[in-house]
Amino acid sequence: MALNEGLKALQDRLGHLFADPGLLERAVTHRSFSTDHNERLEFLGDSVLNLSVAHWLYEKLNDQPEGDLSRVRANLVKQDTLFQLAVVLELPSVLRLGEGEMRSGGQKRPSILADALEALIGAVYLDAGYTAAQSLVARLFKDVKVNPQMQAAAKDPKTELQEWLQGRKLQLPLYTVVATRGAAHKQMFEVACDIREMGLSQLGLGTSRRAGEQAAAAAMLETLKVKAS
């Protein structure tokens, strides 16, 4: 398929020429625009991003303990950081959104832009493999400052829960979107947080998958505090 000029320019900014241009087009397509949207690519890209950033930090901060690495990674993969990187990539100009989402300012919404960036990482992974995706992540983060202040930043619920489980040698939680509600431009995501080794499950609700995961993690932390008291 032939890409429009905007997507051709995005390829140049990404530094990756797609063998399958359809993956690039899908990555910038919101569910309000088409049934062939980017949510599955976002799901994949989220995991590739976390692994790539973990690998990058393992080499960059080779004298830091696991807890510090986890906190820095949480700062790097949080919505605000991804939103800023998406703006640098000029993603707002190429997003494919439905009319309602466009009218409500969806092209500037941090959750949509962060999700699209993860979808792009997933698309590169499918198009050319992990090494290409890892190289893209390294290019995206090359100018992001990694400093002691990031290590001392307040923990979000997902990071706090991860560290609680790691400190007890338990497996990391599993997050699953169990339901979506509302119109495409005003969706709410219901996410389950499962700790299978403990037989625990909690639900969270948010305006994006990421927000739903944080809400579910916060609910799980409250459950663990009650059990410990």
Question: Could you please describe the fold and organization of this structure?
Answer:
The protein is mainly alpha-helical and 229 residues long. It folds into two domains: 153 residues, Ribonuclease iii, N-terminal Endonuclease Domain, Chain A (Orthogonal Bundle); 75 residues, 2-Layer Sandwich (Double Stranded RNA Binding Domain). The chain contains eleven helices and three strands, in the order ααααααααααβββα. The chain has a three-stranded antiparallel sheet with strand order 1-2-3. The protein is globular. The model has no long low-confidence stretch (mean pLDDT 89).
Brief digest:
With 229 residues, the chain is mainly alpha-helical. Helix content is 58%, strand content 10%.
Which structural class do you get from the secondary structure elements?
A: mainly alpha
What does the main sheet amount to? Answer: 3 strands, antiparallel
Determine the number of helices (DSSP H or I, runs of at least 4 residues): 11
How would you state the average pLDDT, rounded? 89
Shape call: globular
- For this structure, the CATH topology of the largest domain is Ribonuclease iii, N-terminal Endonuclease Domain, Chain A
Mind telling me the CATH class of the largest domain? Mainly Alpha
Q: CATH homologous superfamily of the largest domain - what is it?
A: Ribonuclease III domain
* Named CATH architecture of the largest domain: Orthogonal Bundle
Give the N-to-C terminal Cα separation.
60 Å
Number of domains: 2
What is the gyration radius calculated from CA atoms? Answer: 18 Å
Parts with pLDDT < 50 across at least 5 consecutive residues? none
Q: What string, H for helix and E for strand, traces the elements in order?
A: HHHHHHHHHHEEEH
Share of helical residues: 55-70%
Number of strands: 3
- As a percent range, the share of strand residues is 5-15%
